[in-house]
Design brief:
Muramoyl-pentapeptide Carboxypeptidase, domain 2; 7 helices; two-stranded antiparallel sheet; binds zinc ion; 6 strands
């Protein structure tokens, strides 16, 4: 049934901006060495207790004792503070290359994810679905199974095309991210050819921090997170 489960990030609600208590200014970043592919490296040992490799998907809910310390972004969204510097480096380098990126979702609380899910269930019920919860689950991750609750995931679009559709991958911004995100420790989390493994449809806007070593290895070997962790 994995292939039948398709979850999409929420468009309108997911892009809603939230006021942030504090805003840090993006630091100046050094130019990156240009490489077209991830370098050959020795495969790092996988430590499943590594916070950067936390697996949250339809079969692996967020741990009950999960806690995260957040850092606010200029956009008003927040992320796990431990990924802040690498994220700013990526966004800064993208800007230097002429890319105009917009973050339209990042960390979500359980309450926010619950609200999004409940709203989708309500809509499915209004549309006459016999099992509105099942229908809603195809589009919005059930509470505690959304990667957005980890603070390690972001939805990033091109400023000129802010729709969360597959056409997002046609934008120069998305191509830049797909080519370069691994250098900063991020991966395109839900690739088109991994839907049956991730349980989530193609999302060419959803990026997940896994750390530079893992991102490099996953990119080099063409693995999604589940495969990298041996759960594919
Ligand atoms: Zn997302």
């Amino acid at each position: 049934m994995r292939g039948a489960i398709v979850l999409l990030c929420v468009l309108a609600a997911g892009c809603a901006r939230h006021p942030a208590p504090a805003v840090r200014v993006a630091p100046e970043s050094a130019p990156q060495t240009v490489q077209t592919t991830a370098p050959e490296t020795t495969a790092p040992a996988i430590d499943r207790t590594d916070w950067r490799l936390l697996l949250v998907n339809p079969w692996n809910p967020l741990p009950e004792d999960f806690q995260v310390e957040l850092a606010a972004l200029e956009s008003g969204f927040s992320v796990d503070q431990r990924i802040y510097d690498d994220l700013q480096q990526m966004l800064g380098d993208a800007r230097k290359d002429g890319m105009e990126l917009v973050i339209c979702s990042a960390y979500r609380t359980l309450e926010q994810q619950q609200w999004l899910y409940d709203a989708r269930v309500e809509r499915a019920a209004a549309e006459g679905f016999a099992e509105p919860g099942v229908e809603a689950g195809r589009w919005v991750a059930k509470p505690n199974t959304s990667e957005h609750q980890t603070g390690l995931a972001l939805d990033i679009t091109a400023a000129q095309y802010r729709c969360l559709t597959e056409d997002q991958d046609q934008t120069p911004e998305q191509r830049w991210l797909m080519d370069n995100a691994w250098r900063y420790g991020f991966i395109l989390r839900y690739p088109q050819d991994k839907c049956a493994i991730t349980g989530i449809g193609y999302e060419p806007w959803h990026y997940r921090y896994v750390g530079k070593a893992a991102a490099t290895e996953m990119t080099r070997r063409g693995l999604c997170l589940e495969e990298y962790l041996g759960e594919g």
